[in-house]
Amino acid sequence: MLTINNARKILQRVDNLPLYLHAYAYHLNMRLERVLPGDLLDIAHENQLRGVKIHVLDGERFSLENMSDNELAAFGEKARQLNLDVHIETSASDKKAIDLAAGIALKTGASSVRFYPRYEGHLQEVMAMIACDIAYIRDTYQGSGLTFTLEQHEDLKSHELAMLIQDSGMDSLSLLFDFANMINANEHPLDALKTMSPHITQVHIKDALIVNEDGGLGHKACISGQGDMPFKALLTDLICLGDEEPQVMAYGLEEEVDYYAPAFRFEHEGDNPWIPYRQMSETPLPEQNALEARLCKEKQDAVNQINYVRSVLQQIKQEATHLLNH
Fold first, then answer.
1. What is the pLDDT averaged over residues 37-44?
2. According to DSSP H, which parts of the chain are helical?
3. pTM of whole model > 0.85?
4. What domains sit in the chain, N to C, each tagged with a CATH number?
């Protein structure tokens, strides 16, 4: 239930919520080099968003990873001219991946780097490896001006992620909360949000259907508003994090239609379960004869999500207004 205090926070914050375009909303178009990093900046600007979240590999041959220092500087300059903040994302936590992503962030004038671990092994062994990676990030980049976010990404549970942040000794490290990725760790969105909430500063917004899988849960991402995620409740709670100032600094619009992730954690596992290795996130390309239509649909889905999220924010605002006026 919405409290008077939270209703006031909503009215102070909702109209200026920092919405970011997420490159994954254009994943298929970027894999085929139809949408490139510079195009994302234009799309974000056209839709009056605060910034972009972009992976080092997005755009294949034309990705940030493949740009020269001059090209990275030009990308950063374009972002500044359009008054857009840039967040860099990578899909690993080891030294090589972090150095590459942080280097790109510094060369483009980006403000933040997102990472997530992809290690195989027993849970306690995996947690120790991640803690070592975080110690490297702290020791190397604590004074760089960059903030870092660890995303909950399908295999670790909320309390495990919170523990990694608490033990990190790194002020500029926090959690990125994804609307659906806790499903695969056999958790539910509002419970995961509650556990992670002291540490969340960034968000990936998407919707998904929950798939029951033999003692675990998978998720299939879908059009926002058509899945099982408690969309409005999650947004409401996230807006209200932080007493004096908003705690969440960036909401990434990550429409991911047809992305599927299997169960990774199970009901009857012990306290040190095996965590399997997994590939980077990828949505399968359709057959050749369906490709052009699918690429067009992806672009439309991305814009539709922006409009849908804004409509939900208006509903939240109306409910807060109604509570304060009665």
1. 98
2. 4-13, 27-31, 37-46, 69-81, 95-108, 123-141, 158-166, 189-196, 231-239, 288-324
3. yes
4. 4-324 (3.20.20.150)
